[in-house]
Specification:
Layout lengths: L5 H12 L4 H8 L3 H10 L3 H26 L3 H17 L2
């Protein structure tokens, strides 16, 4: 198990929010890549929780922007929003 300092946690949150790949995240916070990969596969640990929360916040922000643009009439944004709606409905079956 990897124990992160408060500084590493903040850095991980920031860099994961920028949607960096896992190996890059490991390098940025000074953790061996193989141990970081294992932590992400296990899904029940601090690293996984921080990374996923940061990525979901970024994804939500992007989705909100797409929906706002679609509401204002952007055809490409409307296409993207429609795809998001289809995927959401598929997941809720």
């Amino acid at each position: 198990m990897i124990k992160l300092t408060d500084e590493q946690k903040e850095s991980l949150k920031e860099f994961a929010g920028l949607l960096l790949p896992n190996d890059d995240l490991a390098v940025m916070i000074g953790v061996p890549k193989d141990r970081f990969r294992l932590a992400m596969l296990m899904e029940e640990n601090e690293i996984f929780e921080i990374v996923m929360a940061a990525r979901l916040i970024t994804e939500s922000t992007i989705r909100k922007g797409v929906i706002d643009m679609a509401s204002r009439g952007s055809t490409p944004a409307q296409t993207s929003a429609e795809a998001m709606i289809r995927n959401m409905k598929k997941d809720n079956v």
